[in-house]
Amino acid sequence: MATFAKPENALKRAEELINVGQKLDALQALHGLITSKRYRAWQKTLERIMFKYVELCVDMRKGRFAKDGLIQYRIVCQQVNVSSLEEVIKHFMHLSTEKAEQARSQAQALEEALDVDDLEADKRPEDLMLSYVSGEKGKDRSDRELVTPWFKFLWETYRTVLEILRNNSKLEALYAMTAHRAFQFCKQYKRTTEFRRLCEIIRNHLANLNKYRDQRDRPDLSSPESLQLYLDTRFEQLKIATELELWQEAFRSIEDIHGLMCMVKKTPKPSLMVVYYAKLTEVFWISSSHLYHAYAWIKLFTLQKSFNKNLSQKDLQLIASSVVLAALAVAPYDHKRGASHLELENEKERNLKMANLIEFNLDPKSENREPLSRSSLLSELVSKGVMSCATQEVKDLFHLLEHEFLPLDLAAKTQPLLSKISKLGGKLASASSVPEVQLSQYVPAIEKLATLRLLQQVSQVYQTMTIERLSQIIPFFDFTTVEKISVDAAEHNFLAMKVDHMKNITVFGNLGLESDDLRDQLTTLAESLNKARSMIYPPAQKSSKLGEILPSLGEIVEKEHKRLLARKSIIEKRKEEQERQLLEKEREEESKRLKLQKITEEAEQKRLAAEYEQRKNQRILREIEERELEEARALLEEAEKHSKRKGKKPILGEKVTKQTLMERALSEQLRERQEMEKKLQKLAKTMDYLERAKREEEASLIEAAYQRRLVEEKLLHECEQQQDVEQSRQRHEGDLMEKGRLSRMLKNKEEFQDKMTKSREAEFVRRREEREQRINQKIRARKREREAQRKKIFYVMHEEERLKKLREEEEARKQEEADRRRREEADHQAKLDEIAEKQRQRERELEEKERLRREALLGRSTDGLSRPSVLPAGSRPEPVAAAATATATAAPTPGKYVPPKFRRAESSGQAPADPDRWGGGSRQGGPPGTDSWSRSGPRQSPDSWSRAGPRQASGDFSGGSRPTWSSSRPRER
């Protein structure tokens, strides 16, 4: 990787490489500079480098390079100039979008060009063959080759920018803008898969913000600005999801919005809540959840009525009618009959969840009241005044279906009302956030409700009815559909009805006919007999057994309750421990995988870099040679053309080089230029004479034409002046007539003007007083805030000074402690040096005494052995050794080593039998006394010396004595 002294040098080098067509080398040069730790201080040059870097990344579609560079640049300018990062990211997204649009327009132009190539043939032969081979059309092929790569890069750009900005509190607006642009991209090009991924990415970003709250630059969701940006992003996500008809993703977006509102404990603006409930109505209607759909409509009606001051009466009636029809569309029976306990619990939890999602607060008067039900919904319609705002047709329909008893005429009276209601609807003029309201969507559900009501009322009046008659009084559906509806109602215990197709009749009954009374006859009989028996023969010990059971029952229940609570806590702890272990295991595996991946990538990058450098050098050399050859060839061809054009012989048979060809071409160009200048001078002189002659001839003709033009313009001016005078006269007469006509209304106009002026003055005075009151209130509130802020600042400064003083005292104490410890160490070291010096002095004295003693002993032994030749070979000088030993034993001097008693006894006894072992003879078989030495006492093994103790082994004896040695020659030092 090349290093640069200044960033400007890298930018110049990149521009040079771009000019010669080596964009990849330029990109790698800039990438090396940006990722280098040498240039971590922000400067304006780095911004220009980043602009050039992202341009190269977009041109070459290098998304990975762009992401690495932007991450490094974020590190550089995060704390210094974050607006520079914002500008770079905006430029990056602009370039990516522009390239994608260019590719799309280019593909369209290419497709149009292909379509008009041959006007006679439907398809070109090559297009026909290609379509048979590839199985795709021309547009699909052009999109795959041109448009798809750029769209992939644009999508990768959005993901990169969102990943970079996800934890940056200073660029929250840019994050929201990028998310909005990504949503619009998915909407414009119908990218449903990418939209799901984008929603999941944004959802994970928010989850990580809540999970890792100790990050330095983390956005603060409690701030109103941050909350508004996040809510706007989620609402835009909700709108795009409904437009793309991704209803599951829309419901998840609604859950995200609700979770965000619960997280910060703050309700958004009413305009956003209107959008929230409007989209909820769409989602619930698509999912056939009519009950939740109606509750969402009630909340939407309440918001519009309370906060929309521009809501017209017509729009209010339309919304109220939608609420009533949505409530009527809910089935009049629940689906809980025959369900298991688990299903009932799940349904209850689902209702509670939906109630929280809709934010519908129930009146907790009845303990057994369900969270959401059709009965409570209808009571809400009356209590909130929805019925009073609905249209008359809707009111009549509601009264007819819920309060009237018309077994035979119910459908006949309902049908005209439904036909009128189906024509109502349209867009709301004063509620832009509410979608288009069409009441016709509720007609099928209300027809089903009317059929159920009719069957219910007929079953209360008739026992049997023919199928033809029943089909006549139900005109909405054919009898097959009516039969399906009745089967579902009978299954959920709403109707008691049987269809006999053999007799062609329908049999009705009450709800107890087919249920528990007949089905459980034997059980009822057994219970009655058991009751009679107990009355005749009452049990004797029943009360006593119950009295024995009751006292212990409370303890058993309490113990069981405690056991269940303990078991629940243990299960929760085990779950938490298991989740923690799984999380740690995943983290370890992820870290191992990242390390292995990093090592592999580094090795691969090194190998690729080496191969790339080698290929680059070879390519540069080859390009230079080819360029030289091409230039020489072009010059040769040019020279041959000129020589043929001028009748000269071409250059043949001689050795031509690039330098000679260039010299000849330059000389030829110079000569041609001189000839051309001469021709131009001659032509200019000729044109001069010709122009002078033309002007001399034209002078008289121009003067005559000018005089004729003066006469014509004078006549034209007089005619136009007369026309203007006539038009002015006619206009004046018309204005006089208009003035006379309007003068009758002048008095009324002045009265109305005075009235409006007075009312506006009064309104102005009132609003001015209100404004002054609000200003005074705000001034007082701000004064209180400033006072509290000043107190807080004073307290913080005082606390900081106190903490600073404590830190200074602690540092001073630590410094004194360190100085004292250093002084003690220095004194201790000085004492140790003094003791060591005394020890060395004592050792020198001992060595001097030992040397003198050895010299004395050496002189005596020399006198005793004055005639060594008299002794036989191999004999031992025992008298001398004995005398020396006796002398050393008898007369111990102070400061010398005195062996213990057992050593002295051994030394006074006879010598060992082996003369060579104790040094009596020669070590090399020579004469005695030549190189022999002896010691006071028997020779010890090395183990005995090693066991003598550390001080004796090192020569430092406790008594200051040293072992006595005798030798036949002085000890060498």
Automatic annotation (TrEMBL):
Q: Which residues form a coiled coil?
A: 93-120, 561-700
| Stretches for region Disordered | 746-791, 804-973
Subcellular location per UniProt equals: Cytoplasm
Chief subcellular location equals cytoplasm
Any single GO molecular-function term of the entry would be: translation initiation factor activity
Any one GO CC term of this protein is: eukaryotic translation initiation factor 3 complex, eIF3e
Keywords of the record: Coiled coil, Cytoplasm, Initiation factor, Protein biosynthesis, RNA-binding
Q: Where is the composition biased (Basic and acidic residues)?
A: 746-775, 804-857
PANTHER family (alphabetical)? EUKARYOTIC TRANSLATION INITIATION FACTOR 3 SUBUNIT A (PTHR14005:SF0), EUKARYOTIC TRANSLATION INITIATION FACTOR 3, THETA SUBUNIT (PTHR14005)
Q: Which HAMAP family match?
A: eIF3a
Q: What is this protein called?
A: Eukaryotic translation initiation factor 3 subunit A
Question: What is the native source organism of this protein?
Answer: Erythroxylum novogranatense
